[in-house]
Amino acid sequence: MVESLSSPSVRNGTDMNDWWDNGNNQIAFCRGDRGFITINNDGYDLKETLQTCLSAGTYCDVISGSKEGGSCTGKTVTVNGDGTAYIEITTMEEDGVLAIHAKVRIMA
Q1: Is 53 helix (H, G, I), strand (E, B) or coil?
Q2: Is 1 inside a domain boundary?
Q3: Is the pTM value of this prediction over 0.90?
Q4: DSSP H stretches of helix in 1-108
Q5: E-strand spans in 23-104?
Q6: Residue 102 falls within a domain, yes or no?
Q7: Where is the Alpha-amylase C-terminal domain (predicted)?
Q8: Rounded CA gap, 43 and 1, in Å?
Q9: Which of 11, 13, 28, 44 has the highest CB neighbour number within 10 Å of its CB?
Q10: What dihedral do alpha carbons 4, 10, 15, 16 form, nearest 10°?
Q11: Adjacency order of strands within the sheet including 57-60
């Protein structure tokens, strides 16, 4: 997770916005227009279309992998033109977290 959302170059000058939760233990939020994180700490899968605040494109999840050249070693997330993306974090996944940000866009 070389360039995570905790990196000052990603989070500095941003606020937390577009909060979403399921009323229990699934949450998602943006860091301005620079990053998006989702956490699933429930006993069931998270499968939602959520606002990411990012530009359209395909992004590399920095929790499950890293951007290497023009590809991703982990999960990818496709952000639509309206900034939404289908997010899936199953209970079988080791971390239960997904994080993407502007510096890990692999395709426009």
Answers
A1: coil
A2: no
A3: no
A4: 8-11
A5: 26-31, 35-40, 46-51, 57-60, 67-68, 71-72, 76-79, 84-89, 97-101
A6: yes
A7: 17-105
A8: 25
A9: 28
A10: -20
A11: 76-79, 57-60, 105-107
